[in-house]
Amino acid sequence: MPGDTTGASRLDQALAGRGLARSRTHAARLIELGAVTVNGAVATKPSLRVTEGDTIEVRAEHPEHRYVSRAALKLVAALDEFGIDPRGRASLDVGASTGGFTQVLLERGARHVIALDVGHGQLAEPLAGHPDLTLLEGVNARDLTRDGLDGMLRGSGSESQEAEADDGAGPRTPRAGELDLVVADLSFISLRHVLGPLRRTAGEDADFVVLIKPQFEVGRQGVRDGIVADQRLVGGAVSGVVQQAFEANLGTLGIMASPIAGTHGNREFLAHFAARGEHPTQWTDRIREVTGDTTRGEPT
Question: Mind telling me which SMART domains this protein's record contains (predicted)?
Fold first, then answer.
C-alpha cells in the first residue's frame, strides 16, 4: 500500500484521472467490487490516498470494468435466463443512455442496433461510430411509429449505408418492421406508455426484453426517499406491466429479478414478451415468487 502521501489524491479520483474509470462514481463501484489493486494489494476504500508513484490496476476481466454501464449486466443476465441469442438479429435499444444494453447486443453478434434515447450526448465514447450502430437522439419512445422510425433512419445518414449495402460494401440498416429484438431500459416514464408504440413499430415476431422499474410504475405516492418499500406495490407494478403488454398483443415468456439493484437500491425486474407469449394469469405465481408479494391475486 502507499507509503509517503505527499501530493497524494484519493484513489477514486486517481482512477478517473488516469482513465481507468469513467468517473469517480464508477471508480467507487470498481473498488467496492474488489476489482482495483494498489501496488499489488486489493484496495477497499475509495478514500485511500495514492501518489503518482503508486501502481494502480483494474482487473480488466471484471464485468463492471468491461461494460460502459453496469446496466449491461442486467441484460446479460436476462438474455441468458430467457435463452435469447441476439446473433444476426436487427435490434432496437430503447432508452439507450450510455449504451450498456447496446454494447451487450453488439458484443453478442446483433446484425445492427438502433439505439434510441430522449436525451442527447450520452452514448459512451467506446461505442461512438460503431459500424453496426445507428444512434437516434431526442426521440420519445411513446411517440414511435413504424413510419416515423423509418423516416428518422432515412434522415440519420442511413441512406448512405443502404447505398453501400446495395453495392455490396456492407450491411443495410434495418427498417422498423424488420426489428426482431427490442430491449428497453427507461427511467421517469412508465413502460405502460411505451409498450403499445413499441409493439406497433417492431416486427410482428419480435422478442421484447424490458427492465421493469417499480419506482416509475407506482406513482409518486408509492415512493418514499426514492424507494418502493411496499412489496404489494412492487408486485402490482410488475403485474401492471405484464397486463399492459398483453393488451398490446404481447404475451409473457419470462420474468426474473434483476441481479443488480437500481437507483437508491430499488429492486428491479426483467420481463420477456412476444406475440407468442402466455396470458398474464399464467404468470401470477411467478410474479409472487420474484417480487415477494404474497398478497397478489390475478393480474389486473
Answer: S4
Query: E-strand spans in the chain?
Result: 9-10, 36-38, 41-42, 49-50, 56-58, 90-94, 112-117, 133-137, 181-184, 207-212, 251-257, 269-274
Task: Give the 3-state secondary structure percentages of the chain, helix then strand then coil, rounded to 5.
Answer: 40, 20, 45
HEC secondary structure over 68-86 = CCCHHHHHHHHHHHHCCCC
**181-227 pLDDT, tens per residue?**
999 999 999 999 999 999 999 999 999 999 999 999 988 778 877 78
Residue carrying C-alpha cell 464485468: 63
Instruction: Provide CB contacts within 8 A for 94, sequence distance 6+.
Output: 116, 141, 182, 183, 184, 185, 186, 194, 198
CATH classification code of 9-61: 3.10.290.10
Name the burial class of residue 53, with classes exposed (0-12), middle (13-18) and buried (19+) by CB atoms within 10 angstroms of its CB. exposed
Residue type, 175: R
pLDDT tens-digit readout, 101-110: 999 999 999 9
Percent of the chain with pLDDT over 70: 89
Every domain of the chain with CATH number 3.40.50.150 lies at 67-157+173-291
CATH 3.10.290.10, the chain: domain bounds: 9-61
Q: Does domain 67-157+173-291 have CATH number 2.40.110.10?
A: no
Handedness of CA 121, 86, 204, 217 (dihedral sign): negative
Which residue reads 439507450 in cell numbers? 96
Residue carrying the nine cell digits 476504500? 45
What does the mean pLDDT of the chain come to? 88
Q: Under DSSP, is residue 113 helix (H, G, I), strand (E, B) or coil? A: strand
3-state secondary structure of 214: helix
Q: Model pTM?
A: 0.77
Question: For residue 280, how many other CB atoms are within 10 A of its CB?
Answer: 22
